[in-house]
Specification:
The complex is a heterodimer. Chain A is α+β, with helices and mostly antiparallel strands. Chain A has five helices and three strands. The longest helix of chain A has 25 residues. Chain B contains ten helices and no strands. Classes of the chains: A alpha+beta, B mainly alpha.
Chain lengths: ~110, ~270
Amino acid sequence: MRGQALKGHLDLLVLAVLADGAKHGYAVIDELRQRSDDAFDLPEGTVYPALHRLQKGGFLTSEWSEVQGRRRRTYRLTDKGRGALGEQRLAWDEFANAVARVLKGVPWPDTP
Amino acid sequence: MARYALIDGYLDSMRSNIRWRRDLDDLVAEMEDHLYSTTEHLLARGADVVDAQRATLARFGDPTVLAAAYASNQRGGIAVPTKFTKRAGLLALISAVSWIAAAVLMIAINDSEDWQIRYYMFSIVVLVAGVLTVITMVGVGRRVGGLGALGLIGVVVACIGVLFSIVAWAIPLWMGLQGFGLLLIGGAVLRAGTVVPRTAVVLSSVAFLSGPVVFIILDALEVGWQDSYGDYPLAWIISTGVAVALMAVGLVGVGMWLRAEEPVDVDATAIAA
């Protein structure tokens, strides 16, 4: 999937990936890729501004540790983030179901 | 820990592209951890060290696009220091001095036989200071990636206040309008979600609304002597002095911040790419 199409949903996806525990940025991206069967191929660096934005909004907290001589930042969902994930997931389900209902019964166009 | 020349070169480039960020070291440390982790992962899978670095950087993304992403504020505007914002910093310092000069002239009017000349000088200085202050706050708006609708309304109201300052004696009118406009601009700046000197922005935002409040209190208390018009000049002087002092301190803070940052060139179209 192209990065542009992902852009509007990145916050929801990041919150979802962090729902089952704290992760650092590399692990967030790796999980996104694995769960989507490599469908999400956005530039990996763009996830970090999203993580920082979510932290600034109070949806995530982060802490630093040292791993193999490198500084590593790990992100964790806050209660506000968990609530936002629930709300955004509900909104996404409603949207996806509505689109599915519109498309249902529409025949696939003939392929040239 | 092994070092990787291509990765390090990329990190140097990013460091330069986002050097205005106050959390620069944290951002670069986080990128370094990611890039090194990816490279080591690829090396463990048998990749050549140069190929692993190239693949890592290709996956991470174009540094120009990423710099634009790091530069964007919560509304998506590009929030970087530019030549304009740096000049606005200089205007902030000049306007701070202008407001102090205006206050001194106002006090001098009350104690002078050639009060008319001093009043005209006061009018001109107030007008210049008002114009410079509005330009400064537009510069602050540019620095935080745009003011949004609320901030733009603030700019319009502040400009109307500056126009009314031609009638310099009507201090509550022009100071109130400018104060309300600056309050809206300050609110928009603080809402932009970008690192700003909050105290300085708050001071310059509330300064001109504090003047009328202080005046109302002092006038009600009948502070000082009463002149032939039935007014209390000391109430005028103190309230205007408080407003101007707060404004000058705020503008100096804003000006020093804007002047301290070196302009950068981030491609504004990259964020939309």
